[in-house]
Design goal:
357 residues; alpha/beta; TIM Barrel; eight-stranded parallel β-sheet; binds (4S)-2,6-dioxohexahydropyrimidine-4-carboxylic acid; binds zinc ion
């Protein structure tokens, strides 16, 4: 009832984003630059971004697509493969442009075919990352077809993440887009800190996993625009994610995992995984935090804890949200005359981001 009508925050950053490439950049970069100061850009292009030279070239394509006057800063990542040379880590760090290395278990999700087939194979790379202070960004799902799709995150933690953490106690790890109470509990149980007192363990949480349980996938019919990986889970897991995000615990921070696919690729017999949230991301997060009367906790989650984890300065610019309904467009323009369908297309959102003064 006594919810504030406006909310001014330090300008947020998105610590997990898919911008795609080529003609898509004209759209994706503008969506994120309108709301966020910086973003950790995922490397799962076709072919993937596997070395520093490719990351720098991709960065230049993103910067070339920035709207005039935008100060949006892409923070690049490398895609870990069985063949990544440990020596690549020093090159990545010394570039100043690469801020993490992404682990996709082979076959876990979109464009993950070049991912890691057996974790022991990349232990020398993880050793180099631990030494260089380079964060490991983890898509935490097993690919074992025997494991139920709703259990893949919890099983990954037990089978793979625990051993990585034990073998590399000083490695900076982000468990990406967590979806379960198990993942939130595991993150909370990691107490390691670096010499500056910054946690060695982080986790990103998407807006869609805060707002929806798996019921959204089947509400009156099959809803492909709510399909992402890791898939939405049952209500008690959503509640655990809301607990984590609104707790003020600096190990949990914002990462949209906004992942556009053209409408035809989503509304298909074998539809792609990914929810497009970037154009309204902050509004969606505000809605989730308001559900818990926790808007006073949004700034830490959206604008401070991720920057601290990545050892980057917090932003100085501000952004203002107003409690003023807006309707999400039914579609947005995309590449080659195609359209994309944003999350909650056609629905009314209670909050809106005001244009920068
Ligand atoms: O839903 C998803 N979409 N999850 C991922 O991990 C990848 C992403 C994509 O690139 O489309
Ligand atoms: Zn992702």
């Amino acid at each position: 009832m006594d919810e504030p009508q406006t909310l001014t925050l330090i300008r947020p950053d998105d610590w997990h984003l898919h911008l795609r490439d080529g003609a898509a950049l004209a759209h994706t970069v503008a969506w994120s630059a309108a709301q966020f100061a910086r973003a950790i850009v995922m490397p799962n292009l076709k072919p993937p971004v596997v070395d520093t030279a490719q990351a720098l070239a991709y960065r230049a394509r993103i910067v070339a697509a920035l709207p005039p006057g935008s100060g949006f800063e892409p923070l690049m990542t490398l895609y870990l493969t069985d063949a990544t040379p440990p020596g690549e880590i020093a090159r990545a760090r010394d570039s100043g442009a690469v801020h993490g290395v992404k682990l996709y278990p082979a076959g876990a999700t979109t464009n993950s075919d070049s991912g890691v087939t057996a974790l022991e194979r990349v232990y020398p790379v993880l050793e180099a990352m631990q030494g260089a202070g380079m964060p490991l960004l983890v898509h935490g799902e097993v690919t074992d077809p025997e494991v139920d799709v709703f259990d893949r995150e919890a099983v990954f933690i037990e089978r793979h993440l625990e051993p990585i953490r034990r073998a590399f106690p000083e490695l900076r790890i982000v468990l990406e887009h967590i979806t379960t109470a198990d993942a939130a509990a595991w993150v909370r149980a990691q107490h390691g800190r670096d010499a500056q007192g910054v946690p060695l363990q982080g986790a990103t949480i998407t807006a869609h996993h805060l707002l929806y349980s798996r019921n959204a996938l089947f509400a009156g019919g099959l809803r492909p625009h709510y399909y992402c990986l890791p898939v939405l889970k049952r209500a008690r897991h959503r509640a655990a994610l809301l607990d984590a995000a609104t707790s003020g615990d600096p190990r949990f921070f914002l990462g949209t995992d906004s992942a556009p696919h053209a409408r035809a690729a989503k509304e298909a017999a074998c539809g792609c995984a990914g929810c497009l949230t970037a154009p309204h991301a902050l509004e969606l997060y505000a809605q989730a935090f308001a559900e818990r009367d926790a808007l006073h906790r949004l700034e830490g989650f959206a604008s401070c804890f991720g920057a601290d984890f990545y050892r980057l300065p917090r932003n100085t610019a501000r952004v203002t949200l107003r409690r003023q309904p807006q309707r999400v467009p039914v579609t947005l323009p995309y590449v080659d005359g195609e359209v994309v369908v944003p999350l909650d297309a056609g629905a009314e959102l209670p909050w809106r981001v005001l244009p920068a003064a």
